[in-house]
Amino acid sequence: MKQYLDLCQRIIDEGSWVSNERTGKRCLTLINADLEYQVGKNELPIITTRKSFYKAAIAELLGYIKGYDNAADFRALGTPTWNANANENEAWLNNPHRKGEDDMGRVYGVQGRAWAKPDGGSVDQLKKVVDNLSKGIDDRGEIISFYNPGEFHMGCLRPCMFQHQFSLLDGTLYLNSYQRSCDVPLGLNFNQIQVFAFLAIMAQITGNKAGVAYHKIVNAHIYEDQLELMENVQLKREPFPSPELRINPKIKSLKDLETWVTMDDFEVIGYQHHDPIQYPFSV
Ligand SMILES: Nc1nc(=O)c2c([nH]1)NC[C@@H]1CN(c3ccc(C(=O)N[C@@H](CCC(=O)O)C(=O)O)cc3)CN21
Ligand SMILES: O=c1ccn([C@H]2C[C@H](O)[C@@H](COP(=O)(O)O)O2)c(=O)[nH]1
């Protein structure tokens, strides 16, 4: 929690104002932040200085794992977070590739599970990584990349947290996640939980011990309409200790995640938090 609050304070103290054309808003912006999560010790990096809707964050991750491309499927899993990008962004609404209400196009999960090959067929990046790690193999390329510039025009948003690399060392699994752009008040609240949970889940289904997750953020920003709440409300609060994430131990394979796992299989134990804060969201 301290590293999150330090990043927020650093953006306020050292950030520069940048106008963002896509949203029409200004962002207080900092380049480069490195966060670390102790997954092996089960110290969940959940925000405690406001209430975090952590189930929505895990539902997003599960939707990517399942390869979803539709905001209605994300809603059914338990998160409304893709509604606005799928249905309220003018450029996407006018895009001829949009397949109708709730379609997100060829984003995250589609690239992770079915990256289109130029010579036909597709690549299931996640399955390859799971298969290797389950056999104790780390070929130094256990990478899942969502970043496919050749298909940006076919999706509602370019992926923000766009690459995950797993490493296996002495039976312990590590994760390096790379994020190009981060809405620190809203997005990072979710992204921290997702990086942590991704390593914890992958360790569990591949039969390895979880180690540390390293989360690199390049462009870390606070939108102009979020700044007052961050500076004068959230940063004035004292954090609580980190709670633990409990994952149903019956989850043993990628197939389990694809078929029967729901949000009921994830629980945060001992979550103490301050009141919710509703930050404005920029589409
Ligand atoms: N501007 C922006 N920021 C983001 O963080 C973001 C995007 N756009 N577009 C794609 C996804 C969608 N994400 C989102 C979208 C909404 C919330 C949000 O409104 N969170 C509320 C609670 C949501 C709930 O009730 O479940 C929050 O208070 O954290 C968070 C992340 C993260 N991403
Ligand atoms: O997982 C996510 C997804 C999105 N975001 C934020 C970061 C930016 O504020 C917007 C995306 O805008 P771009 O113009 O494409 O950078 O969404 C996030 O923080 N985490």
Structure description:
The mean pLDDT is 97. The two termini are 27 Å apart. Strand 7 (172-183), helix 8 and strand 8 (209-223) form a beta-alpha-beta unit. A six-stranded mixed sheet has the order 1-2-8-7-6-5. It has helices at residues 2-14, 54-66, 71-77, 83-87, 90-93, 108-114, 125-134, 187-206, 227-232, 254-259; strands spanning 16-20, 25-38, 115-116, 122-123, 143-145, 161-169, 172-183, 209-223, 244-247, 266-269. By secondary structure, it is an alpha+beta fold. The longest helix has 20 residues, at 187-206. It is built from ten helices and ten strands. It is 32% helix and 25% strand. Helix 2 packs parallel to helix 6 (108-114) and helix 2 (54-66) crosses helix 8. The structure holds 5,10-methenyl-6,7,8-trihydrofolic acid (MHF) and ligand LAUPNLSC. It is found in: Cytoplasm.
Distinct small molecules? 5,10-methenyl-6,7,8-trihydrofolic acid, the ligand O=c1ccn([C@H]2C[C@H](O)[C@@H](COP(=O)(O)O)O2)c(=O)[nH]1
Rg (CA only): 18 Å
Q: List how many beta strands DSSP finds.
A: 10
Most strands sheet: 6 strands, mixed
Low-confidence stretches: none
Helix proportion range: 25-40%
Give the neighbour order of strands across the main sheet. Answer: 1-2-8-7-6-5
* Count of DSSP H/I helices: 10
Mean pLDDT: 97
Task: Note the gap between the termini.
Answer: 27 Å
The secondary-structure class comes to: alpha+beta
